[in-house]
């Protein structure tokens, strides 16, 4: 049984249709000089959206399959795809704005890792430029949740379905569980469980950690909830002078 690269297709299935945050990234990008950096860019949901609106974008991700997909999809657009670890990278040029959508900072489990990431970002920002990080604060797990709706996509005769099955709160983290199902053109069904762990911490804590990277609080914005996604708080962090 074979099909598209698993990382690529599952990223498209589970993240590709999300649009609630795009208006905010567009707004922040309007006044920016220089390229825009997207951390955890995946296959380019945000990077390609901004590039199609005339911005030069650098997408950074540690997964080579996702970066290869972004390079292919960004052909003809002002998009650079960089395979690198978000906790330690060097772009060779500065950026005017850095974005961390889809709770990227919460995928880093410790303060030390988040600080390392923000130091790497700050090296590329001029004074006053922003890092915008989307966070989910205090996610609650309902006692009697409504039945979830799976994310589904068809590609080349294959059908991919990702069904949220549970969200468990732990000590300083939330564990999101999904059942991934693949149906081949011949009707063969394959299933696998997927688990994502998000660190849970308030924006206040991220702002304190950001001081080690010489980033200061510069306001907060919100991304509204949708029928299938919780809302986000976006912490804005500005590069200090000097």
Can you describe this structure?
- The structure is a single chain.
- With 242 residues, the protein is of the alpha/beta class.
- 23% of the residues lie in helices and 33% in strands.
- It has six helices and eleven strands.
- The chain has helices spanning 6-15, 22-30, 45-51, 64-73, 111-122, 203-210; strands at residues 36-39, 57-61, 79-83, 97-100, 130-135, 151-155, 158-170, 173-183, 189-199, 215-223, 232-239.
- The protein has a seven-stranded mixed beta sheet, with helices on both faces.
- α5 (111-122) links the parallel β4 and β5 (130-135).
- The protein is globular and about 60 Å long.
- The termini are far apart.
For this entry, give a set of tags.
4-stranded antiparallel β-sheet, about 240 residues, alpha/beta, 7-stranded mixed β-sheet
| Helix percentage | 10-25%
- Main-sheet strand order equals 3-2-1-4-5-11-10
Which shape, going by the Cα principal axes? globular
What structural class do helix, strand and pairing data support? Answer: alpha/beta
**Largest sheet features:** 7 strands, mixed
Tally of individual helices: 6
Q: Tell me the Rg in angstroms.
A: 18 Å
Along the chain, the helix and strand elements come as HHEHEHEEHEEEEEHEE
Roughly what is the average pLDDT, rounded to an integer?
92
Task: Report the span from N to C terminus.
Answer: 56 Å
> What is the assembly state of the chains in this entry?
single chain
Q: Proportion of β residues?
A: 25-35%
Show the helix and strand layout.
Elements: H1 6-15, H2 22-30, E1 36-39, H3 45-51, E2 57-61, H4 64-73, E3 79-83, E4 97-100, H5 111-122, E5 130-135, E6 151-155, E7 158-170, E8 173-183, E9 189-199, H6 203-210, E10 215-223, E11 232-239
Parallel strand pairs: 1-2, 1-4, 2-3, 4-5
Antiparallel strand pairs: 5-11, 6-7, 7-8, 8-9, 10-11
């Amino acid at each position: 049984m074979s099909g598209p690269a698993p990382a690529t297709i599952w990223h498209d299935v589970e993240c590709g249709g999300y649009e609630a945050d795009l208006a905010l990234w567009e707004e922040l990008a309007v006044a920016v000089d220089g390229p825009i950096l997207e951390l955890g860019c995946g296959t380019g949901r945000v990077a390609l959206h901004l590039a199609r609106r005339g911005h030069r974008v650098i997408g950074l991700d540690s997964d080579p399959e996702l970066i290869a997909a972004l390079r292919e999809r960004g052909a003809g657009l002002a998009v650079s795809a960089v395979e690198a670890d978000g906790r330690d990278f060097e772009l060779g040029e500065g950026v005017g704005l850095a974005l961390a959508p889809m709770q990227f900072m919460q995928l880093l489990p410790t303060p030390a890792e988040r600080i390392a990431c923000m130091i790497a970002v700050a090296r590329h920002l001029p004074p006053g430029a922003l890092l915008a990080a989307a966070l989910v604060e205090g996610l609650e797990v309902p006692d009697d949740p409504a039945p979830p709706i799976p994310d589904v996509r068809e590609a080349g005769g294959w059908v991919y379905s990702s069904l949220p099955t549970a969200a468990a709160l732990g000590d300083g983290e939330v564990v999101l569980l999904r059942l991934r199902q693949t149906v081949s053109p011949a009707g063969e069904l394959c299933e696998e469980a997927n688990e994502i762990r998000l660190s849970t911490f308030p924006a206040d804590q991220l702002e304190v950690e950001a001081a080690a990277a010489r980033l200061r609080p510069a306001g907060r914005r919100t991304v509204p909830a949708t029928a299938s996604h919780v809302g986000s708080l976006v912490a804005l962090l500005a590069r200090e002078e000097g």
